[in-house]
Amino acid sequence: MEQAAIAEADDGLPLPRRYWAIAAMCCSTALVILDAAIPVVALPTIARELHVPASSTVLTVTVYQLTLVMAMLPLSAFGDLIGLRRLYAIGLMIFTAGAATCLFVTSLPLLLVVRAVQALGAAAVLSMTSALIRSIYPSHQLGRGLGINSLINASFTALAPTVGGIIVAFASWQWVFAASAPFGILALLGVRALPDPEPKSHRFDWTSSILSAATFGLIVGGLELGAHGGGALAAASVVGAGIVIGYAFVRRELRVERPVMPVDLLASPALGVALIGAMAGFMAMMAFVVSMPFRLENGYHYSAGEVGSMMATWPLAALLIGPFASTMADRYSLRLLSALGAGTSVIGLLLLALMPADVTPWGICVRLFVTGGGIALYLSPNARAIIASAPRDRAASVGGIFQTIRLLGQAIGATVAASLLAFGLGSGPGPAYAAAFLALIAGLCGVVKIRR
Questions:
Q1: pTM, whole model, 2 decimals?
Q2: For residue 389, how many other CB atoms are within 10 A of its CB?
Q3: What region holds the Major facilitator superfamily (MFS) profile domain (predicted)?
Q4: Distance CA 216, CA 218 (A)
Q5: Among 3.10.180.10, 1.10.275.10, 1.20.1250.20, 3.40.50.300, what is the CATH number of 1-200?
C-alpha cells in the first residue's frame, strides 16, 4: 500500500483530476499576485479619502510584506503537521474573508489589521504552493507545472496596474482590495481535487517559529525602514537585531529533529547555492525595476505614462519566456539554461546601463525585453532545481524557504535601489550595473552547483 502511494506521488494526479487541481492552483496564484500588486495604484486615493498623509498609506504594503515574510516558514512547518491541502484551504478562506471585509473598511488602522489578516492567508497559500505542484504533476513534468504557475504570475503582475486603475476610476478604493475575492472562491471550489499527502506526526515547534518570525521580520522590517527614509542608524540597528536572533535561531534549528527552516537540507551545495542564486536573481530584478522609472523620467524626460508603457515590456518578456523556460527545464541541462538566462540578463542590463542620450523608446523596450526574458530564463530552471532537490516529505519546508528567499531578495533589492537614489546615483546607469553584477553572481551559482 505504501509503495502504491509513493508511485502515485511520483506519477502525479490522475487525469482529469489533475486538470481541476491545476485550475485551483492557477486561481490561488492569481489572487495572491493581484492582492500584492493592485493596491499600490490606489494609495493616493486612500490618502485623500481617509485624510491621512500619503506616506502613511505605504504601511498597507509594508504590513502585508512583513506579515507574509514572518509567517511563511512557520506555516510551511504547520502544513506538514495538519496536512498541506487543509492549510491551503484554511489560507484561502482567511484570505477571501479578509478581501470581502475590506469593502467595509473606513479607517487606516482597520485597513492595516485586515491587510495583516490577508497576508496570513496568503502566506498559508504560498507556503503550500510548491509542495502541492510537486504532487500534482509527474516528476518529468515538474518544470511544466512551475511554468504554468509562472505564466499566471507574470500575466497578473502585468495586468494588476491596469486592473487597479480601472477599479479606482469607476468604483470606491475598497474594491481594489476585494478584487481578488472571486479567485479565492473559485480556488476553494477546486480544493477537493488537490493532493492530500499524509500529515506528519510531530509536535509544532513554537519556539523556532517565533524565532523565525522575529529573524525575518526584523531583517526585512529594517530594510524597509531604510528604504523609506527611516535613518541609516535605525535601519542598521533593526537589521542587526534580526541577524543576532537569526544566529540563535539557526543554532537551535541545527539541534532539533524537524527544523522549521530546513537547515539540514541547506547544507547540500545543490540546494544551498541554488537558493543563493535565486536571492541574487530577485535582488537584481527588484533593484533594477524600482530604479529604472526614475532614470527614464529624470534622465530621459519621458512622462509617467510613457515610462509605464515601456516598463510593461519586462513582465511581457517573463510572460512569453517563463513557461517556455520551465518546459525546457524538464528536457535540457539546468546548468545550460541557467547560464544562458543569466548571461542574457547581464547583456541586457549592460545595454541598459550604456544607453545613449538619444535612445528611442523602441530601443529601450528591446533592451527591457532582453533583460526580462533573461531573468525569466534563469529563475525558471533555478526554481525547478530547488523544488526537485528536496525529499518529497520536506517539499513544504523547501517551498517555504524559497518563498522567504524571494521576499528577502526583493526587499534587499529595493533597499539597494533606494540607497543609490539617496546618494544621487539612482537616475544614472548605477542601478543597471549593480543589477548586472548580481545577475552575474546568480549565473555563477547556477553553473557551479545546479544539478539535474
A1: 0.81
A2: 18
A3: 21-452
A4: 6
A5: 1.20.1250.20
